[in-house]
Amino acid sequence: MSLFSYKQRNNINLVIIVALGCLIAYSLLGVFSSILSTLVLYTIIRPAYIYLVSSRGMNRRVAAILLLVTSIVLIVLPFYGLSSLVITKIAEMQSDQIYYKNLFFKLQHLVPVGANMQSLIEEGLHRAGTWATGLFPSIISGAVDIVFGLVLMYFLLYFMLIEHEQFEGAMLKYAPLREQNAMRFAEEMKNLTFANVVGQGLICVVQGSLVSLSFFTLGYSDPFFWGVITTFICFVPVLGPPLIFVPAAVMQIINGHDFAGWAMLIFGFVVILNIDNVLRFMIAKRVGNIHPIITVIGVVIGIPLFGILGLVFGPLLLSYFILLIRIYETSALASDRLERIKTISEAEELL
Asked: Is 342 exposed, middle or buried (0-12, 13-18, 19+ CB in 10 A)?
């Protein structure tokens, strides 16, 4: 005969489940970015997978493998290739002492800079370069971690796709939300993911391409490299592109290339910045939009946690958090309304 009552056994089981859940969650902290990447990619790839399987009659496994290989070719390989390019270029700039000496010499013609201030600025630039390099995943130094993260991500994604009914059914069953609110959360999460990843990604690529093209046309050095940097920085709306083209234009003016400098400033503020608003308006009509304030705060939160991927994951997590608060408010209001109706009905019955 058991020493515990039925209620006590349930409470003990609940404590064990919570303790094991916390232990599992803690052990998965190192691969949290891979799990989050899996959910994001699943949200993006799922419509194409449903189309291939349901409309085209393709085998589930074949469709999943085809989409996974496509994502590797279009997303993973370019990202790590561009990351390696950025790391290499930043390392070259850090080791080039002549570059810094020429930079400070030109700055002295624009703004008087003392010896102490010059050393502080130089140290700050070196630290900024080291910090920026650390944001990007290095294939050489972190090959094992990168391969493990990618294998885990695509392993999970493969089975989530071919068994998407069971996966979504389990998420719906165990979600701490009413079915209606869970469906609403899934739909809005899909829109937010498309808006931030696909929509914002498209805006960044367009702005980075415009910066690269304008740099090339006006004779700036390394136009492709600075276009890549602009593409990453453009995930910070409004503030991102000027961080690249304004200093570059000022340096051109200092070097005596007035036309190249002023043309870049005019093109940057008139075209590159405003193309953001045009594309954002078009995207918002289709899948929704994320407010720039949420994006900036999300980037500040995401970069220390995920590195360069925090440009995407930070705003997404903050958007999901705000969405859950809104759903909770809706549920709380509905529960309060039902409670008032029940109280009124009981009062009427007493009368």
From this structure: exposed
Burial (0-12, 13-18, 19+ Cβ within 10 Å), 215: buried
CA distances from 207 to 13, 70, 323 (A): 54, 24, 29
In this prediction, residue 270 carries a pLDDT of 85
Q: What is the pLDDT of residues 215-233, one digit of tens each?
A: 888 888 778 888 888 887 7
Tell me if 133 sits within 8 A of 307, measured CB to CB. no
Residues 6+ apart with CB under 8 A from 307: 134, 135, 136, 137
Q: At what angle do helices 179-193 and 310-350 cross, to 10 degrees?
A: 160
Residue whose structure tokens are 């289709």? 286
Which two structure tokens, joined as six digits, stand for 320? 């999901």
For the stretch 102-133, pLDDT in tens is 665 665 555 555 555 556 555 655 565 555 55
User: What residue segments make up the domains of the chain, in order of their start?
Assistant: 33-174, 189-319
Distance, CA of 308 to CA of 296 (rounded, Å): 14
* Alpha carbons 281 and 84: distance in angstroms, whole number: 33
